[in-house]
Write a structure and sequence with these properties.
Helix content: 40-55%
Number of strands: 25
Largest sheet: 8 strands, mixed
Structural class: alpha/beta
Distance between the termini: 79 Å
Number of helices: 26
Length: about 750
């Protein structure tokens, strides 16, 4: 038995010893959902091995993968067998896509590709990319050993949520380079999220189709890449024969790719890491699942009763799921000792997120300084301190929320009962140390000078970024005279006037006057202790009157503003800004979300269908709502000759909805999309934090139950009434100016 197999078997034995403990105390949601999905998916297949046995092996294999993430052991992580190496070489030579799943030892699935790039290619300029979601992009960059290996091989990470990801991947393929993408990642932008239905093991699932459309257009092949274990425990990496996406046959390509995966999955179901969220992709389970056949209720497994708003039960013999207890999630902010805090415990999370947020009224003279604080406050020696917190991750960010400037520091820490139980408290102390250091010691002169220079180039870079510049010009015009119109990063004139003394004065003012929030979201949180620690460390006097509650809505202007500006871009940009008179605190906010889903914010929406799919007049299109200002912004990348036609289509589609030309089917699709957004959003720390902050700023509190109640009662009249409230405010076009001779 090799070292890998021996370690794996030891983990399996340990998980089996914990079976009785799990039965008695219940499962965390990240344990329960994989078992539930396995039972639902595998029960119609009548497999020989018990679901619990497969599940125990799944938990053990995940422990192996988690170990590899932070401490890779290349001595035992080489593959015993490489199958289809010639197909790998063919794909690298011709340029194409390696498509895979989080299956087997997937963390090492580029090892053989890296070796080929290093030693088997004469052309050292050959490029290779791995497509990951934003969260993985940030966390992977912190793993020094993996980053070093990628850097040495010239392998680069691409963010799936980037608004230009489709264009980037297309040009990678046209340059005859290659990339790896995980088909179960479900992250993407715009058309990359267009669903195609395909068969899975026994269910029907929805699959993003964007990558297949790109491959069809680029006329490049797919090589399915899978890592697995043989029956005798040997580690295998398999490259399948490349195949093309035939014109107008994307469904066939999707079905072929998934048939290869499910064939391997049937053999080793325990090796697929993403069982825990499989139900999110299922459109329809097998007819035999969840049938109420009169059998008495039987609960074999259930989730833990403590620290959870929902208790679930599972009947493994009959593949039935029961909702035993549910409590609506509240977004209320608690206040104590001058601190606003929000603590939410959910055992589905694997890590704990701690976010310290400062809100300060947007002011022109302070904008540069606050943005510089984001970089300047992170100590140069921070990594050593984070390593003592079991590899915690710290990041900072500046943004704009309504009429406020936002500075955030976020820590992600591993929560494990076997680790230090006081990690949250130690993390809060580290954040306090970071914030207080300049107040006690001032800023280091050398770092200030460096950050002034860096910020100069940061502002220039942002102003030269086409998407950012176009949006800022349009939004600042729509909100002229309002704090919202002030640039987040400040301007070069203000930066020129800054010095060390002014920066420190700004920091003292910022810290003393900011509205402070602490959000802590994760598993197994002692809420009373966390609140006590947070208030003890960050206590301050009660907030001043800088923060009166108000709706912050941007007023409706009488005249439509038209702007044309040269952004020196290869593609045109068209932005159409509307005022809605509706924000998060309005009873009409949820119907507005449904309206926008129908209008432009979904792959099947009227604008996406008419402009992109039917006429092919846009490279990408988005339709977004600002939760506080009541602004609806449609952003289109297109050729300049299509400006007038696309503008006319956008206004015509709005007029049609105002005239009642919207079907019940479209409305129900919109409602279902918003339900899915809310359901998944309430399990996403970033969205939970945003909802609680927005509600607090507007003095408006809601809960999960009320949101779904509103959704259930939305009518066609509601959607039409919303559309009639929307008024055109600003039209922005980027126009290339011809130099005069």
């Amino acid at each position: 038995m090799n070292k890998f197999s021996k370690q794996y078997e030891e983990f399996v034995s340990e998980e089996e010893m914990l079976r009785s403990y799990y039965k008695e105390h219940g499962l965390t949601t990240d344990q329960f959902f994989p078992l539930m999905n396995m039972v639902m998916e595998l029960s119609p297949l009548k497999i020989n091995e018990s679901y619990e046995k497969i599940w125990m092996k799944y938990l053990a294999h995940n422990r192996m993968i988690n170990r590899e993430r932070v401490n890779p052991n290349f001595e035992i992580d080489n593959y015993d067998e490489i199958i289809g190496e010639e197909y790998m070489m063919e794909t690298l030579n011709e340029g194409g896509a390696f498509l895979s799943w989080h299956f087997g030892d997937y963390r090492h699935n580029v090892d053989e590709i890296i070796k080929a790039l290093r030693f088997k290619f004469q052309n050292k300029n050959r490029k290779f990319y791995v497509v990951v979601d934003q969260e993985s992009f940030e966390s992977e960059g912190k793993l020094d050993l993996w980053e070093k290996i990628r850097e040495e091989a010239g392998v680069k990470l691409l963010v799936a949520e980037s608004n230009l990801i489709a264009i980037k991947l297309f040009y990678i393929l046209k340059e005859n380079d290659s990339f790896l993408l995980f088909l179960d990642g479900q992250a993407g932008f715009n058309e990359d999220n267009t669903d195609i239905r395909t068969n899975f093991l026994s269910s029907e699932i929805k699959v993003r189709s964007g990558i297949f459309r790109i491959l069809e257009r680029a006329k490049k092949k797919i090589c399915i890449l899978l890592t697995t274990l043989s029956e005798d425990g040997k580690k295998q990496i398999i490259f399948h024969k490349p195949f093309a996406v035939e014109p107008n046959k994307i469904d066939e390509a999707v079905n072929k790719a998934f048939s290869i995966f499910t064939s391997e999955l049937k053999k080793k179901p325990e090796l697929w890491r993403l069982w825990y969220r499989h139900d999110e992709q299922v459109v329809e389970w097998h007819p035999s699942v969840n049938i109420q056949d009169g059998k008495p209720i039987q609960i074999d497994w259930k989730t833990k009763s403590q620290n959870s708003s929902q208790i679930l039960g599972l009947d493994t013999n009959h593949a039935r799921l029961y909702e035993l207890e549910t409590e609506a999630l509240s977004f209320d902010i608690q206040r104590n000792s001058g601190i606003n805090f929000f603590v939410h415990t959910n055992d589905k999370y694997m890590n704990t997120i701690i976010r310290l947020t400062f809100l300060y009224p947007l002011r022109k003279e302070m904008a540069c300084s606050i943005s510089i604080f984001s970089e300047l406050l992170i100590p140069v020696n921070i990594q050593a301190k984070l390593d003592h917190l079991y590899g915690a991750i710290l990041k900072s960010n500046v943004s704009r929320k309504g009429d406020y400037h936002v500075l955030e520091f976020e820590m992600s820490i591993m929560q494990n009962n076997q680790l230090d139980s006081d990690l949250i408290s130690k993390s809060l102390k580290l954040l306090l140390e970071i914030i207080n250091s300049p107040l006690e010691k001032g800023f280091e002169y050398e770092r200030i000078e460096k950050e002034f220079t860096s910020h100069y180039y940061r502002i220039k870079e942002m102003n030269e970024n086409v998407e950012y510049a176009a949006q800022e010009i349009c939004l600042s015009t729509m909100t002229e005279g309002e704090p919202f119109s002030i640039p987040i990063y400040g301007d070069l004139d203000t930066l020129e006037e800054l010095n060390e003394e002014i920066l420190l004065q700004h920091y003292q003012e910022f810290i003393s006057s900011s509205k402070k929030y602490i959000h802590i979201i994760g598993p197994n949180i002692d809420e009373d202790k966390v609140q006590k620690d947070a208030c003890s460390y960050f206590q301050q006097e009660e907030e001043n009157n800088l923060y009166p509650h108000g709706d912050m809505l941007s007023p409706v202007h009488q005249e439509v503003k038209y702007i044309e500006q040269d952004l020196h871009a290869n593609q045109g940009r068209l932005l159409i800004g509307f005022k809605t008179g509706i924000n998060f605190s309005s009873l009409e906010y949820i119907p507005l979300l449904v309206f926008n889903t129908i209008f432009g914010n979904s792959p099947e929406s009227k604008l996406q269908t008419e402009i992109r799919h039917n006429r092919g007049m846009a490279y990408y299109l988005s339709s977004e709502i600002d939760d506080l200002k009541g602004i609806l912004l449609v952003h289109v990348a297109l050729q300049e000759e299509n400006y007038e036609t696309v503008t006319e289509i956008i206004l015509n589609e709005l007029n049609k909805i105002q005239d009642g030309q919207v079907s019940e089917e479209e409305i129900q699709t919109g409602i279902n999309a918003v339900k899915h957004y809310v359901k998944t959003g309430l399990e996403t720390p970033a969205i939970l934090i945003d909802i609680s902050l927005t509600g607090d700023l507007l003095d408006f509190q809601d809960d999960e139950e009320k949101v779904f109640s509103v959704l259930e009662n939305i009518s066609k009249r509601d959607i039409v009434d919303i559309a009639k409230k929307i008024t055109l405010d600003t039209v922005f076009k980027s126009v290339k100016k011809v130099a005069k001779i």
